[in-house]
Amino acid sequence: MKFSSNKKAELPSFQMTSMMDVVFLLLCFFVTTSVFSQWEYEVDIALPSAESGVVPDRLPGEIIINIDKSGQIMVNQVEYTEQMLLETCRKLSSIYKGHPVVVRADKETDYADVLNVIDICRQADIWQISFATDMNQGSGAKYDENIAPTEIK
Fold this sequence. Notes:
By secondary structure, this protein is of the alpha/beta class. It has a single domain, classed as Nucleotidyltransferase, domain 5, CATH 3.30.420. The chain is built from three helices and five strands. Strands 3-2-1-4-5 form a five-stranded mixed β-sheet. Strand 4 (101-105), helix 3 and strand 5 (129-131) form a beta-alpha-beta unit. The longest helix has 23 residues, at 16-38. The radius of gyration is 25 Å and the shape is elongated.
């Protein structure tokens, strides 16, 4: 009987296909996350400062409504009219009850413009409203992790 074979033993190799899949999925995740996190940085709003603010946990799906000096309303870098904001908020509140909203108003924005946005949220049955403030005394900074919420009841 002949038990020996003429085949050479193959060296073990590393399977690259599954590793490339994992790296590609991680790359997609980080690119998507960075795109969504940059949307609010590009809106130039100088926030008012507050000493007693608390940095809250960011809630998934919260809407950030930006109001600039002239009273222009922007959400995700898209300019909204009051009617467009009301329709969007109504659709949102009908699908997600108790959905949070963060209002980022420039420190030079008229009080009437801020109250107008709050009234729009109330008409759309959105009651969980927070205001973004800059916790660094003195200078107004762009949106970062320093927002202090104030819930309106």
